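Below is how a single chain appears once it has passed through the pipeline. First comes the sequence as given, then the structure the pipeline wrote out for it. We keep one example in the README because the format questions we get most often are answered faster by looking than by reading.
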Amino acid sequence: MSRIPEQPRLTPQFCFNQTQLRDFLRISRGTVDDTISQNLNALVTPGTSRPFDPSSTAERAPRPVHKRPIEPAACEQFKNRVLFPSWQSRSDVLNYCAGVATSPDPDDPDHVLREVEDMRARERMVNERLDPYSGRYFPREARTEALASLIRNERMVESIIRSRTWGLVGERCDNGGTDYDAALNEWRKTEGER
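Resulting structure:
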């Protein structure tokens, strides 16, 4: 069974280090969601669900291993110990960093530089007749704005990945016809009771 990566220590510095944030999300997704078929196949123990049937060799195209249903206990264990904790860990990181992105940033190293550039842009003489591009000014993006944009994108990616993963889990395990959000919320309730 896959081992989910350990959740990093949540600090504003972690969130503003976009490489570190993306690496955690990429590794977490790669460990569980990107390899979901392999993880599900690992739950199938050959020969335990059905003993060998000699007449099965007469079949021309046996049912492929990736379509065999998985024992419900193994599915539940995988969902409760690997899948949902991985999703929850990523949700915690994204929620924390979204909070950092919407908070004031007194430690922004580019704050003074942006203010100087804004002041120069206001003082600049613009004559668009002589230079049609002289009126253009593109202010630098604050690091909280860049982080908010990254979080929005990562949440969209997370939604797509979870939907795909939950669909594949539903093909092999009984997911009760629920969507991934409802299943994750139900898991959160049961984990909160423990």
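The radius of gyration is 25 Å.

See the next section for the split statistics.
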